[in-house]
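Open question from group meeting: does this chain pack into something compact, or does most of it stay loose? Before anyone orders reagents, we agreed to write out a predicted structure and look at it together. Recording both the input and the output here so the notebook holds the full record.
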Amino acid sequence: MYKPITLLIIATLVLFMSSCDDKEEPTLSLSPSDLVQTTWYGTETSFDNDQETGTINFILEFLSSSNGTYIFVDEKGDPYGNGSFKYQIKGKIISFSGAIVGDWTIIERTNQRIVLQAFLPQKHIMSLTKNN
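Structure tokens returned:
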């Protein structure tokens, strides 16, 4: 009597465990529709031999599927420069032209945060946090 019930319980547990996925890897690709009409607070940090050499703070507004505006801000959040940029997304690469330049690889992405990396030729890390 206990043997069939035990086998049924074990079979159920095996099926349940096999249907559970490990933590899914976050997607590292983007499309322009993920960014259009959003605003992001950003920090770009430059490195030389893994030593931090500088940080720039800014705000990015992605106005369309290929254009945006930026505002450079100081450590207090006060603006000190602005302009426009163009961008293009292919898979996990975002190519910028304007004040932000180069090909940036997405190394982390959630709905509220994107981390990009580029070598220009030194290593640069850009962290973007969504404002709206």
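Observations to bring back to the group:
The chain has a mean pLDDT of 87.
The chain has two helices and eight strands.
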